[in-house]
Amino acid sequence: MYGIPKYGRFRSLKIHRIYTRDSVTTRNCPALLCLPGPTLTPSLSSLLPRKSQPSPAFVSKKKPLSLSLSVHESLAMQETELHDLSDDADYAASQLQASASMMRSDGIKRSSSSEPDGAEIVYLKDNVTIHPTQFASERISGRLKLIKQASSLFMTWIPYKGQSTNAKLSEKDRNLYTIRAVPFTEVRSIRRHTPALGWQYIIIVLSSGLAFPPLYFYNGGVKEFLGTIKQHVFLVRSAEDANVFLVNDFGNPLQRTLSSLELPMAVSVASEPSTSISVGESPLNENQERTDVVFGNSSASLYNGKQRQKKASNVTEKIPDGSPVASDPLENISYMKHNHVEEAATNLGTFELIDCKEVDKLTLVWGKPRQPPLGFEEWFTFLDSEGKVLDSKALRKRIFYGGVEHGLRKEAWAFLLGYHSYDSTYAERTYLRSIKKSEYETIKFQWQSISPEQAKRFTKFRERKGLIEKDVVRTDRSLSFYDGDDNANVNLLRDILLTYSFYNFDLGYCQGMSDLLSPILFIMEDESESFWCFVALMERLGPNFNRDQNGMHSQLFAISKLVELLDSPLHNYFKQHDCLNYFFCFRWILIQFKREFEYEKTMRLWEVLWTHYLSEHLHLYVCVAILKRYRNKIMGEQMDFDTLLKFINELSGHIDLDPILRDAEALCICAGENGATCIPPGTPPSLPVDDGSFYTQQDDDVL
Amino acid sequence: MATTGNKNINAKLVLLGDVGAGKSSLVLRFVKGQFIEFQESTIGAAFFSQTLAVNDATVKFEIWDTAGQERYHSLAPMYYRGAAAAIIVYDITNQASFERAKKWVQELQAQGNPNMVMALAGNKADLPDTRKVAAEEAQAYAQENGLFFMETSAKTAANVNDVFYEIAKRLPRVQPAQNPSGMVLMDRPAERVASASCCS
């Protein structure tokens, strides 16, 4: 019923999505966390089984299973996996293999007839590996088996002993991760991941919602694995996600949602050596007598250890910037919340959370190199003969990675800010400019026509005017553009701001606005054009200046969530030091880093932010990137809130923009959907939430 | 405190006042000895520290410089909470700034630390020609409300250090040793944490 033709329609879509996510994680995220699902369940620990008390269901057992296995690694097994996107072919294969002999399934010859008690190994794969950390040296390889006893199917994964490459790997680690005979009655789903670069891996989710760490198939064999399972238990492909296979889903398999499969994916495994289990009743075997499966720790051969190492180093070489092979973010999920051993009891028994090592051992060394700014010649390649921007996304991408040459800013900023629409023609823009000019003059005349006598009775006007006058004379006066007595541009700043306070009388003038206007006037060199560009900017940043500070609070809150996601030790530090209000980032956010960089760099940063290319909220990732740059200093010097605010304020002029942009880009990509969920809808500089069409478009951009 | 034999005092001090009254300029003069004609507006808040020797003790001021605009008023309690001292600054050439200063005094009297040492600083005393607020008026107001008053000029440095020095002198006298609000003995650096309670 799930044959290839039926799924053909979905194939390209799904491949594209998987490719996007996985290629990104694999290439760019050595030190970062990125959850594929939307959930970060705070009460994760309560769901995690712990080791000390074996589950009541787990009954001790009789005699070890003796297996005589002759394992022959054949060349046929060495599947080309690095670019294997043959998504549905796996499933098709599993369909075909449902009727095929399991002896052929794996390229492994084995003798399974000698097992006592009717237990039979129906699948065996060596070099199935977990990646507890991002370090290649800390990976743990083992042997994955499917064991059938009576009509029940069990899965085991036993790490190899004495791997010389894993010097750090303690016996405890091995025990911790060992999967000791999980009956498939307790498996809810298997999710298959096929990265564009790297090994195929699976994540097994138990019916409790727990998940085992991703199992990487260094020697291939995922399709055989699925195919073998299908021979013995009811396995269907999820309707929502073609890479999710539901186990024993008799109810209504098609109504399972993807989200239900991505609930807490804690890395948790029974760590108490319990070599035997007893299978409880289940829909599959309720009519059968209780069966027991026993197996010993097979000491697998290390015959292909070198091969494995070689393969790993090949992959490393293919990764840009020489970064270490990215560990999959899934592995790090438990790090998000648990940096120490925690225990929790569940109906599965008691398990122990892994005592995780700090995630952030590596600094961020990646992110695309910045390109030279966009110049006129290239600019015109983005325009058609009428002056329309043909591919605004490509243009925004180009500007995102390189900014705009100074001379081109006047033109480009009007688009980036939304004053001109990308599909407007030269003629339409010229027309708009003239219309807008007279409109500006009309609004300006509203306050210009207030006589001194009227002003006496117009306190609000006098206050605004006074406030603006106080601020414009101290805005960027060190620049020659605003330098000197009676500077005409300072007067323009005043006039534009006063006009804006009439255009948007409810918001009025707020300190910080002069900082935002200054570079715009500097670039546009025209009063009306500057005004309308400023208006467009304030459409997005206006909430920063709300009296109730809601716009600011939502952004500061989002930063705290992002730091929690992307650097949990730093988050914990801030928590312990009462710094979670992130008020030390207030100035960064309010005026978009205007005071933190030199003028030219500020303009570069702004045009990058305004592209909204990766995210509308890249500025929040810029905050995280800066904090991460200085995290060791902040924590090492035990800065409290006061000291931190002083330190942050004094970073002004000392932050190197390009590396920060690269870091922010990488953080944004790595945080992915989870980062986006840290940022509530409507958080500035998003346009107001009611503009649904806009969000739809942005969602596409993020993906 | 000075009588307990402990010579080192940490004191949180907050500057409040109208836009453009010269809060940042006063701090900059006191902390760095500088004056910038077009001192840019303060966004959010700034933090400085400076130590003064008073008689046989030293007072380390932890100074919070705030944004003046009414719009950011809701953030002020975060900064004056737990403060041991406050300087309320107005511009002698601007009557409205004096009115605003009075509002700050009222707010601190209602909301702040009851033992807070408050100073009223009439800044821009170097501009007597455009004076709008008489020194006598401010002096009278200060006296009524238990503040001490000085006219200052961040530009010429007149009376700037004096304001801080006067606060430093008054601190130990009004600060019961067992009341830690904003002031903490410095004999063990670890105890400093207690003075950082402002941001909670």
The helix fraction of chain A, in percent, is: 40-55%
Radius of gyration of chain B using CA atoms only: 16 Å
- Give the tally of β-strands of chain A: 14
- Structural class based on helices, strands and sheet pairing of chain B: alpha/beta
Mean pLDDT, all residues of chain B = 86
Number of helices of chain B: 5
- The residue ranges of chain A in which pLDDT falls below 50 over 5 or more consecutive positions are 1-115, 251-365, 691-703
Residue fraction in strands of chain B: 25-35%
Number of helices of chain A: 25
Rg of chain A, please?
30 Å
Q: Tally of extended strands of chain B?
A: 7
> Oligomer, anyone?
heterodimer
Strand content of chain A: 5-15%
The major β-sheet of chain B equals: 7 strands, mixed
Biggest interface, which chains?
A-B, 34 and 31 residues
Structural class of chain A: alpha+beta
Low-confidence stretches of chain B are 1-5, 174-200
Helix content of chain B: 25-40%
Description:
- Chain A has 703 residues and is α+β, with helices and mostly antiparallel strands.
- Chain A has helices at residues 4-28, 87-97, 171-177, 222-232, 258-261, 305-318, 333-337, 376-381, 392-402, 406-416, 426-448, 452-456, 459-472, 488-503, 513-524, 527-541, 550-566, 568-576, 586-590, 599-610, 618-629, 631-636, 641-650, 657-678, 692-702, and strands at 120-130, 140-149, 152-159, 179-183, 187-193, 201-206, 215-217, 235-237, 244-247, 268-269, 276-278, 292-294, 343-346, 349-353.
- The longest helix of chain A is centred in the N-terminal third of the chain and has 25 residues, at 4-28.
- Chain B is α/β, with parallel strands linked by helices.
- Chain B has five helices and seven strands, in the order E-H-E-E-H-E-H-E-H-E-H-E.
- In chain B, strands 1, 2, 3, 4, 5, 6 and 7 form a seven-stranded mixed sheet that branches.
- Chain B is globular, with a radius of gyration of 16 Å.
- The chains are: A alpha+beta (703), B alpha/beta (200).
- Chain A binds chain B through residues 463, 466-467, 470-471, 473-475, 477, 510-512, 514-515, 545, 547-549, 578-579, 581, 583, 586-587, 590-591, 595, 640-643, 645-646, 649, and chain B through 19-20, 37-41, 43-49, 62, 64, 67-69, 71-72, 74-75, 78, 96, 192-193, 196, 198-200.
